[in-house]
Amino acid sequence: HGYFTYDPGFMATASCQSNITYIDGDNGILLYRGYPIEQLAKSANYLEVCYLLLYGEAPTAKQFEKFQHNIMRHTMVHEQLSSFFKGYRRDAHPMAIVCGVIAGLSAFYHDPMDITDQSHREIAAHRMIAKLPTIAAMAYKYSIGQPFVYPRNDVSYAGNFLQMMFAVPCEDYKVNPIVERAMDRIFTLHADHEQNASTSTVRLAGSSGANPFACIAAGIASLWGPAHGGANEACLTMLEEIGSVDRIPEFIARAKDKDDPFRLMGFGHRVYKNFDPRATVMRETCHEVLDDLKIEDPLLDVAMELERIALSDPYFVDRQLYPNVDFYSGIVLKAVGIPSSMFTVIFALSRTVGWMSHWNEMMSDSKQKIGRPRQLYTGAPERDFHTQVEK
Ligand code: CMC
């Protein structure tokens, strides 16, 4: 037992060196390539952030133009990919569809892809970032029985996603700029978060030299759980279940009860022990969007009151449990017309650039090794086998 450090949940293990994202959990700091998330959310658009994460520096105007062109020209998916959707039940969860269809992309982009070649890795990243919105919107359209909408490359990345989600053949669709900006900001806030469960999954899967599209599918699977990306959907479901401010004490009591598995969704984080800077931006965005769209959502009152009570309750204070990014994102997404079953898909779409940046960083590292954790064996000691089955 003496050889390995036992560290369940990797609470104290650095799995790699990385120069992409920095988090200081005690002081609520999140930097992408050195830039504070608050500044990026305010002043950069999502594709600029994608460039920054992938290449390490913010793009010049010329570099941005070229990058935008490179991404947008890959937004279509092979027409044969549409038939993948038909294999799913019409009421399938969009995460189930997206996870499977993204894995299916590996069939379209395998040979002659050479993942040791930087230019091949770059095109794989462009394809991934470009096609995720298309596949995400197709999953939604499939679930509501509407025809797929083809991508448009003459609008913004967020605008294109919204038109693929909401346009119908019989009507004109115009993207609301407020909704477009909110969507873009949600993408930026979720773009990367260093070695979280899904990113670590992508790295581990990729460390064997596997096809990157299959690795992203593995990341999507990991993201789906309610302790990770699934929290945004679970949080909105919880707010709806609470329903009104007067029912909050009952749910706070349940969250504190160790015999009850219920947790306050959108609260707590493995790394942030002070506040989640993404939640602060998201809270502001939430108020802006609801004001701009003139929406009065009683769930926002429930969320604000829940936050106020939880932050003064010793249970939450002692355990340093603060609202995380997903606490307010669901209310914004609901306000812009996105159904809750799509929330985690949108997280996956946003995080794809982070996953691809980490995969590329790992693959570029000459010291890269297959990820292979060890264990502390707790099973039976060696013993002799005697069959009990009559032959
Ligand atoms: N509600 C009630 N109690 C909680 C909560 C919560 N949301 N989160 C943690 N605790 C308690 C937990 O019961 C434990 O108490 P005790 O010490 O008495 O046993 C203590 O706080 C520490 O919790 P932990 O589970 O050991 O902490 P962790 O670092 O392993 O888990 C977490 C972090 C995010 C999984 C957890 O806080 C959680 O389940 N939160 C709710 C789900 C959620 O909102 N997830 C989204 C994370 S942010 C988006 C993303 O990056 O994916």
Short structural summary:
The protein has 391 residues and is mostly helical. The protein is built from 17 helices and 3 strands.
The radius of gyration computed from the alpha-carbon positions, rounded to a whole number of angstroms, is 22 Å
Total of domains: 2
- The geometry reads as globular
Beta-strand percentage?
under 5%
CATH-assigned homologous superfamily of the largest domain: Citrate Synthase, domain 1
CATH topology of the largest domain: Citrate Synthase, domain 1
Text of the CATH class of the largest domain = Mainly Alpha
What is the helical fraction, as a range of percent?
A: 40-55%
Strand numbers in spatial order across the main sheet: 1-2-3
Going by CATH, the architecture of the largest domain would be Orthogonal Bundle
Query: What is the average per-residue confidence, as pLDDT, rounded to a whole number?
Result: 95
Number of strands: 3
How many angstroms separate the termini? 39 Å
The number of helical elements comes to: 17
Oligomeric nature of the chains: single chain
| H/E topology pattern | EEEHHHHHHHHHHHHHHHHH
Report the uncertain regions. Answer: none
Q: How would a textbook summarize the main sheet?
A: 3 strands, antiparallel
Helix/strand class: mainly alpha
Bound molecules: carboxymethyl coenzyme *A
